[in-house]
Design brief:
alpha+beta; Arc Repressor Mutant, subunit A; three-stranded antiparallel β-sheet; Beta-Lactamase
Length: 246
């Protein structure tokens, strides 16, 4: 991996996820990149048209070059429009990183996401191509309702060996049985994350709704509330989609 390119993509994705003008320090915080480094990369992206810069407020937003590369498929637009009110409701209620995750063919993407508004925050996934959805609670929730052929292809594409597959598949079965996914300090991440599926009229996974927060704000009471609300919003989205499909 080329670190400079990776950092540029992280900053570009974070800018896109905010959906508005955003400052250097906020982008640096969201991406865990040092502010001086972030500023130099942002200037380069601006020079190439991928970001716009407001000299008055000294903030950036997505530019025309990036917009030209954005996903514009009707399915992505439709899913984004469906998910956005529910993502925003959860984000307004908890102030934590909240995302919707969907899949198109073999590509997982975020049609809608809201960044954490607090100082200690979990990072946003890439909006266009999520590399390892099985490492996310909402990714587990989306994978758990996929059929056997999809999962077989997924394991191959992710290059998961037999031991990893033997761990993942029972976890997905457990998620499907419980109706939600939960990851608490998985691989010592310092993050608690929750995900719930949104199902279409035939019971197939349309997308998944997820919320994550640092363990510093993790309590039993807050966990129960977050999980309950994520599941409620996912169920509300499922009902809405079924009504629109009727």
């Amino acid at each position: 991996m080329i670190q400079a390119v990776d950092k540029a993509l992280l900053l570009l994705n974070a800018s896109a996820a905010t959906g508005d003008w955003v400052g250097v320090r906020e982008l640096a915080r969201l991406t865990n990149i040092k502010p001086p480094t972030a500023q130099q990369i942002l200037k380069t992206l601006q020079a190439r048209g991928y970001l716009e810069f407001d000299a008055g407020t000294r903030r950036y937003r997505i530019g025309l070059a990036a917009a030209a590369l954005a996903r514009t498929g009707s399915q992505a637009d439709r899913l984004g429009a469906l998910a956005r009110p529910h993502v925003q409701v959860l984000h307004a209620e908890f102030g934590e990183t909240t995302v919707a995750l969907a899949v198109d063919g073999a590509t997982f993407f975020c049609p809608c996401a809201c960044a954490c508004t607090q100082e200690l925050a979990t990072s946003l996934p890439s909006p266009a191509d999520v590399a390892s959805p099985h490492s996310m609670a909402c990714g587990l929730a989306l994978l758990a309702w996929q059929d056997e052929s999809f999962l077989k292809a997924y394991l191959k594409a992710q290059r998961l060996d037999g031991r990893q597959a033997a761990t993942l598949l029972p976890r997905l079965a457990s998620v499907r049985q419980s109706g939600y996914a939960e990851l608490v300090d998985d691989r010592h991440s310092g993050v608690a994350a929750y995900g719930a599926p949104v199902l279409d009229v035939s019971g197939r996974p349309l997308l998944a709704l997820g919320l994550s927060l640092p363990l510093a704000r993790f309590t039993a009471t807050r966990t129960r509330r977050v999980l309950r609300r994520v599941r409620e919003e996912a169920e509300a989205m499922s009902r809405l989609f079924k009504e629109k499909s009727a």
